Amino acid sequence: MPSETLWEIAKAEEEKRSQGSEGDRVEIGEKSVFFIGSKSGGKTTIILRCLDRDEPAKPTLALEYTYGRRAKGHNTPKDIAHIWELGGGTSLLDLISIPITSDTLRTFSIVLVLDLSKPNDLWPTMENLLQATKRHVDKVIMKVAKTNSKAASEMRQKMWSSIQKDHPDRELIDPFPIPLVIIGSKYDIFQDFDPEKRKVICKTLRFVAHYFGASLMFTSKSEALLLKIRGVINQLAFGIDKSKSICVDQNKPLFITAGLDSLCQIGSPPVSDNDIGKLQAHSPMELWKKVYEKLFPPKSISTLKAIQDPARDPQYAESEVDEMRVQKDQ
User: Region annotation Disordered: residue ranges (predicted)?
Assistant: First the structure.
């Protein structure tokens, strides 16, 4: 009798492990978490901390992938978390479509990291990234609906899972199509801002997060804050129980789990009654945007847009390679 090949042995081992009684069977879970947000906003630092990797953060070039694993218990297969990160702020929106597919969408989450130390860039960065992501996700759900209407319907229902059925704002919000967490980074710089400016930023981000059915939290290099963020990312990546803690005090780092805030608690946009009448807005989101940009006017598009071609980015300069490239282009 010929000896078994290595492949046959491995296959037999895997079958043996997956068989047995139904109660003993353990499925390997796979989830995906996609980090998008401000350029140099601290996305890589958060990812490294969540994965317990003690290495310096390097600038992200275009779209990067890594993964983490976590065991459910002793002698059980480890769950896998696929971690994606989009570099370049809002300059590489086309790459958003690569990790988000009909195969991954059911277990996909978005983490939007916004640099609190640059309030003038905050709204355009948030708006461009969320709009591009939502557009693509909606397109994927429509594609799924053509072949599996039940699955598409479940995806649409799932977006309401973080909002209680008796929540007073249920008719006034529009949850993001997949789980969303908004993280305000560099809180250590932000906490020294003028109190009125902090108030506007906090209230605005609370409104946006609540409107999209998202969680909102602030972080910095503080170990205590990073640990809280790590818990939230673990919940997205491995299904760990969601934290129910809440902090809405604008003099402290915000921490609000999806569904725990309300429009009543957030209040109206921070602007005088006289001014609010002059602002022509067709929706609550547009009103908050106009109030926010009145205090923090966005920089021009040209200054916000990063270098489109990474090959021409000075931080990746290689004199010999660049000289060859010049010769080739000529």
Answer: 307-330
Ranges of H-type helices in the chain: 6-18, 43-50, 119-147, 149-158, 187-190, 195-211, 223-238, 263-266, 273-278, 284-295, 301-304, 319-329
Question: Which phi and psi (to 5°) does residue 218 adopt?
Answer: -105, 150
Strand, coil or helix: what is 133? helix
Q: What is the pLDDT of residues 188-206, one digit of tens each?
A: 999 999 999 999 999 999 9
Euclidean distance between CA atoms 295 and 312, whole angstroms: 34
- Do residues 288 and 212 lie in contact, with contact meaning Cβ atoms separated by under 8 Å? no
| C-alpha dist (Å) from residue 280 to 124, 176, 266, 275, 291 | 19, 25, 21, 10, 11
Q: Does residue 88 contact residue 62 with C-beta atoms inside 8 Å? A: yes
The residue whose two tokens read 């003038």 is 120
User: Measuring CA to CA, how many Å separate 157 from each of 2, 144, 162?
Assistant: 54, 14, 11
Q: State the pTM of this model.
A: 0.82
Q: How many C-beta neighbours within 10 Å does residue 52 have?
A: 8
Contacts of 184 (CB under 8 A, 6+ apart): 114, 116, 190, 201, 205, 216, 217, 218, 219, 254
Dihedral sign from CA coordinates of 183, 187, 193, 195: positive
User: What does the radius of gyration of the chain's CA atoms come to, in whole angstroms?
Assistant: 23
CA atoms within 13 A on the CB side of 42: 23
